[in-house]
Please model this.
Amino acid sequence: MKLRVLGCSGGIGGRHLRTSSFLVDHDILIDAGTGVAELSVAELAAIDHVFLTHAHLDHIASLPLMIDTVAELRSKPLTIYGIPAVLDSLRQHIFNWAIWPDFTSVPDASAPFMRYQPIDTGKAIVLDGRQITALPVDHTVPAVAYQLDSGIASLVYSGDTGPCDAFWQAVNGIGNLRHLIIECAFSNREQQLAKLSRHLCPDLLAAELAKLQRGCQLHITHLKPGQIEATMSEIEACLGDYGPNMLQNNDIFEF
Model:
């Protein structure tokens, strides 16, 4: 499998700041933040599957426009995967004819531009030999992480989460773990805000990584604009032994 980082920032403010979105091979999207806008129309039209961690705007912002852009270029519906609560949020608050058309009924319900596919935490979806499994996390809204398993190695993307023992239990059970992309949204000076919003800061991340029982390459995502340097300095100070890497747009992982 090949994963390309389209966006990995906790906010916007220049070409280098795009919110969470990852292209897997040519046909799978993990989250649909503003980074999706970096793709050409042809690349957008080639995406058949979109897996959402949760329904917060920075993770779904490009999805409505993406579908509108490519719908008539495609011969089959775009499939949106998520736990039921995430899909319900899309139905009620986005694709509801008030904010955006309900593309599950356009041009008609028998041949729509988009379809929803509910998923269960812990149960793998297999797409041409590639396994994608939702893992538990703890955020302010229903949310999941994802394990991407090529059969040779696995990459885990945390999405948004605060401290969560169930997440680490799942990660520790992955025998072929190679990459861990994990959020660290705030610097330590905003630890209370991190706890309130169920995100991580460097000290909280250090406590969580103490639960990790497998070796892997560590990549930091979801850094807030204006706090990037301070947060990464704190991460280096308390997590230097892990060799943490700050995720950047257009990073590519093959596994």
Notes: The domain at 2-254 is CATH 3.60.15.10 (Metallo-beta-lactamase; Chain A). The chain has eight helices and 14 strands. The chain has one domain: 2-254. The chain has a mean pLDDT of 97.
